[in-house]
Structures are given as structure tokens and as C-alpha cells.
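[Meeting: bench + compute handoff]

Bench side (C.D.) handed over the final construct sequence. Compute side (W.E.) agreed to return the predicted structure before the next meeting so the bench team could plan truncations. Sequence as handed over:
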Amino acid sequence: MALAHTPDSLRIGADRELQQALRACWQRDESFSHTPDQWLAEQFSSLIPHLIQDQRFQPDWEPLLKDAQEAEAQGHKTSVIGPLTYLWFAQAEQGLDKLDLLERLLPAYGEIFGRLAARGVEWVQIDEPILTLDLPLEWRNAFERAYHILQYSPLKKLVATYRGDLKDNLGVAALLPVTGLHIDSVSVPEQLGPVFDRLPTYKVLSLGSASDQVELVQEARARFGDNLLLACA
């Protein structure tokens, strides 16, 4: 999701550096007093998108398709930063509500999913780590609005969180119209029980690094059967 050559247009869909920064943000010491957006702004300010009132978005095709090809060769899912996480961490000019740009951003994601599907990609992982934050109501509502629009795009979609507990966002995450949900099963194993109860069993449940949680894995397998994945792609 690097800046384009024109200031009013942002290219989205492929930015490994920003994804790595977000993952590092969620792995930071929990005693650190800064919020994730404050930490990211301090540590990786050059990676943060800057939004203006007349913002336009377009897919960044060359690195995006290269990343998809590499992911396929390695047996991984193609992954992109989700639209809500992208907007949450972006910096907006004064007076601009970032959520006002959501409907302008989503068509770019639709284009990305359509082109990936045309190239034979089956799955896309959509990273939405902000689902583990204390989100305002308007942002939780925006998740429902965004993914109901994106559900008509091709590809199987796995919404992924990083480290942390879904808490009050569990209901939103569980009912998004996507194929599956990836959650952290290591740092917050106690969230698995509520997830088992809320996530429909026709959806895929992906658990990362759960090999040492035998009983939880057995329960998940009993509930989700072949819809259980035990590795984060």
C-alpha cells in the first residue's frame, strides 16, 4: 500500500513493509504504554498512508501479483491488509472522517479480488488486526458494511487477526460474510471457547501455532471438522 506518484491517489494491495510493521506492532511488549497507532506512527511513520478529502485509490498491480505468485509457490495464501485496518492507521487531513472514504476504497479491493480469482487464486487472507482493539461503534458497523459489499467479490476470504482478544468484536468477526476467521490461539487461549460458540461451524476456523493445545484442538476438530485449519497461512 505504497504512495502513488500523484498525491491524491494511493496504490493499495501490496505492501510487505507495512504488513510486517503491523505484525511487529501486535508482537510488541504489552507493557508498552502507547496505543498501536501511536507506536506505528513513531516507529514506521514513513509507511503510514496520508489521506485527503478527494482521495482516490487504485490497486498496485505489479508487486501485488508478484506477491501472489510467490505465496502460491510457497503454498501460502495471498494476504492483503484489510480495508478497515488500512483506514484506521492512515493519517487524515484535518476535518476528514476516514470512514467517509470507505466506499471509495472498497472498489479497489473488489478489483484486486477479481483479478486474483481470474489468475486462479482460490484464497485471500485479509488482515484485520484492529478487530482486537476497543473499536468505536461506527467502526464495528463499518466492518459489517464493508464485508457485505466485498462478499460479492470472488475468492474465498479468510479474515485474520494477529495477537490479542476479539472481546466485544467477536460477534462482528464471527458473522462477517466471509469464508473463515483466523485468530490468535496462543496469547489468549481463553477466547477460544467463546469463538467456538459464536463462529458458525460451516465457516473455516484457522488457529495459528496451536500444536501444544491438544485439548482445545480436539474440541475445535470435533466442532469444525474439516473446516479447522491449524496453521496461519
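W.E. noted at the follow-up: The first helix runs from residue 16 to 27. C.D. will use this when planning the next construct.
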